């Protein structure tokens, strides 16, 4: 593994490739969109707010998308309801005949515990259920692309090192196992976030198992990544000019914070060593390092239980 990740030399040529990055209108998602478009891809910025997305796209176009001169388009995606996520995927399938890379970047970091009208934790819906549905709907197109000669199809799910802090008792036999509130615990909001990121790693594991077990195997590489701590907030503090360099001592700016996502999406080494990266969990130090996740995140039975529970729920919602 190289200590330094070089955007100009370590990426495959993405000209002619189609990529989706969810939540790509700000922060690390926006930087991910930029780097992949500059490598030549047509990148769909999947976001809920059209005005904000178009503003972000205009900013990228003004800054320039050289050297690859890709392009960026908007795809309406609302992860607050899995039904909307399915509709967004179906709309994309009507627009494009291939999909080379899907980066499930969007998610929420914090917020009070609440349930939606389906009786599901809103954080779990946004961070896991809706991305699951969005991806599931796109799998036929991803598979068709993967079956082309010299294909290089990848699915990247953003997880977090926070998953290691999920309390050890985790089960997936009923809906309430997705709605863990951690009431009465210190930093319950953080624990709910950690729990949602554990779901993403287990889902990635189950997804890769599904691809590998197909007959014939589907040549798609699924990876979960920890992007590292990223400063998306110091500009909102009083005296941002004072705080920004201090915060930078501990965590990355969005530009560098996107590197692990970009590595997973387009690094040459992933193309050249696919077996090594199938179902892998990647860290950011150094960028793209294969790391061992928590014991719970490596539990195949837990991953299978989560997949069954998720599918059962979606059937009950007629999704």
Automatic annotation (TrEMBL):
Transmembrane parts of this sequence: none
Sample GO molecular function, one term: oxidoreductase activity
Coiled coil ranges: none
Pfam families given in the database record: adh_short
Keywords: NADP, Oxidoreductase
Family: Belongs to the short-chain dehydrogenases/reductases (SDR) family.
Full protein name: NAD-P-binding protein
Lineage start: Eukaryota, Fungi, Dikarya, Basidiomycota, Agaricomycotina
């Amino acid at each position: 593994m190289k200590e330094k990740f070089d955007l100009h030399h370590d990426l495959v040529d993405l000209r002619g490739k189609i990529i989706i990055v969810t939540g790509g209108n700000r922060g690390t998602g926006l930087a991910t969109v930029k780097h992949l478009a500059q490598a030549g891809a047509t990148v769909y910025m999947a976001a809920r707010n059209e005005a904000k997305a178009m503003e972000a796209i205009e900013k990228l176009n003004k800054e320039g998308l050289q050297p690859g001169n890709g392009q960026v388009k908007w795809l309406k995606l609302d992860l607050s309801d899995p039904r909307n996520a399915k509709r967004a995927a179906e709309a994309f399938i009507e627009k494009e005949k291939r999909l080379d890379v899907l980066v499930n970047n969007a998610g929420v970091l914090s917020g009070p515990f609440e349930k939606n009208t389906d009786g599901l934790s809103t954080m779990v819906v946004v961070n896991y259920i809706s991305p699951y549905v969005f991806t599931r709907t796109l799998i036929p197109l991803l598979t068709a692309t993967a079956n082309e000669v010299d294909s290089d199809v990848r699915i990247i799910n953003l997880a977090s090192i926070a998953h290691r802090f999920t309390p050890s008792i985790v089960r997936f036999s009923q809906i309430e196992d997705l709605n863990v509130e951690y009431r009465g615990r210190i930093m319950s909001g953080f624990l709910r976030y950690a729990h949602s990121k554990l779901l993403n790693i287990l889902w990635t594991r189950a997804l890769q198992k599904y691809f590998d077990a197909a007959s014939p195997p589907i040549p798609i590489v699924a990876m979960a990544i920890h992007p590292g701590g990223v400063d998306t907030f110091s500009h909102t503090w009083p005296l941002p000019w004072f705080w920004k360099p201090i915060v930078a001592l501990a965590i990355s700016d969005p530009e560098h914070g996107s590197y692990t996502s970009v590595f997973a999406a387009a690094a040459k080494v992933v193309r050249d060593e696919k077996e090594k990266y199938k179902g892998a969990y990647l860290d950011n130090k150094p960028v793209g390092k294969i790391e061992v996740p928590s014991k719970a995140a490596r539990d195949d039975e837990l991953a299978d239980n989560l997949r069954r529970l998720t599918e059962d729920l979606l059937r009950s919602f007629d999704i």
